[in-house]
Design goal:
single chain, flat, alpha/beta, four-stranded parallel β-sheet, 361 residues, four-stranded antiparallel β-sheet, 8 strands
């Protein structure tokens, strides 16, 4: 069961409890499913009971007790444990990592993307419907390079979640498109309809000498309220540079695929008993991170998430290929599939930030 399927399963459990008269609530549109926090257990946890407690007029733990029987026994769910004030901790069994890897490899770099609307998201269709509220998201920023880069990244993230976006700026230098790949749909004052103003703390120096990838990372990795650092540390080819770690982990995953082909085998999702839980949790959390980055207009969340994925993947990657006289086995194919999934998430995230993900580094 994939995280998206598990979220639907949780909502179905709420609906069954409502139909049975055990809960008197409106079934929410979405159930957040994420890796367990401190004190949690299992593969995933949900706070749906805390979300429903007030409308249900019951303590969160009681709501969780009501929901638990509707989750236990569902195909793919091995166990459900209640912790804290009412968190439901869900264990999926040994097939969960394989299903997650299969989902990522099937979706490719679009893993975590929502279905796009049928209408185009081009700026020449400003009145086209948006998902889900039927309007175009209008972003407006001052004549500031960091603001334009952040707005460009926010637009990319919103579009990956199915939104239609129009970006305007009070001023725009054409060299920014050539140097950093940014564009706006209009230049001038804020539009008549109230826009979302993108106004991060400006960069203290000109980032253009860093080049496209390092400059975009320097401007996007810090939160909007933090002042970015503009220096050669973003170009350093060493572990202390987060951008280097992210791109290196991606390049290593691609190298493993090439090396495995030379050894005569390819990736095949399957059980990985020694798979790092931190890596599985980070990969499974990717759709939630994209949705949160879109909702909060915060591409820095994606940048920090990519660093977490890379840091969890790098210690695992050297274990993928056979060693010495080992023959390629199902375990090696499964490890390779997990490594490819990590590389796919890293490539997809970098693309949303407008940063290249090279296969060779």
């Amino acid at each position: 069961m994939t995280p998206a399927e598990l979220s639907s399963t949780v909502l179905h459990a709420v609906r069954r409890a409502v139909d049975a008269g055990e809960l008197d609530v409106t079934v929410p549109a979405r159930a957040v499913v994420a890796p367990p926090g401190p004190g949690g257990c299992g593969d995933y946890a949900t706070n749906i009971a805390l979300q429903l407690a007030r409308p249900a007029g019951q303590p969160p733990y009681r709501v969780a007790e009501v929901l638990r029987p509707y989750l236990v026994g569902v195909d793919g769910v091995a166990d459900v444990v209640l912790t804290g004030p009412g968190f439901l901790n869900i264990s999926l069994g040994g097939a969960a990592p394989a299903a997650l890897v299969e989902e990522i490899l099937s979706a490719g770099t679009r893993y975590g993307h929502a279905d796009a609307p049928d209408a185009p998201d081009a700026p020449d269709a400003p009145d086209a419907p948006d998902a889900p509220d039927g309007s175009v998201v209008r972003l407006h920023c001052p004549h500031d390079l960091r603001a334009v880069v952040v707005a460009d990244a926010v637009a990319r993230v919103l579009r990956c979640q199915g939104a239609l976006v129009r970006v305007t700026a009070e001023g725009f230098d054409r060299e920014w498109t050539a140097a950093l790949g940014v564009r706006v749909d209009g230049v001038g004052p804020a539009p008549a309809s109230p826009p979302v103003t993108v106004r991060p703390v400006p960069a203290p120096a000109d980032p253009l000498p860093l080049g496209r990838d390092a400059a975009r990372w320097a401007l996007l990795h810090p939160a909007a309220h933090d002042r970015p650092r503009i220096g050669d540390e973003h170009l350093a080819q060493r572990e202390g540079n987060p951008l280097f770690r992210v791109r290196y982990a991606h390049a290593r995953s691609r190298a493993l695929t090439r090396n495995a082909a030379d050894l005569g085998f390819a990736a095949e999702p399957g059980p990985v008993p020694d798979a790092p839980q931190e890596l599985l949790a980070a990969l499974g959390d990717h759709p939630r991170v994209l949705a949160a980055a879109a909702a909060h207009r915060a591409p820095d969340r994606i940048a920090r998430h990519l660093v977490a994925v890379a840091d969890a993947a790098l210690p695992f990657l050297p274990t993928v290929l056979p060693r010495g006289g080992e023959k390629p086995s199902a375990a090696h194919r499964a490890r390779l599939a997990l490594a490819e999934a990590a590389g796919t998430v890293l490539a997809g995230g970098l693309t949303l930030l407008g940063i290249d993900a090279p296969d060779h580094l």
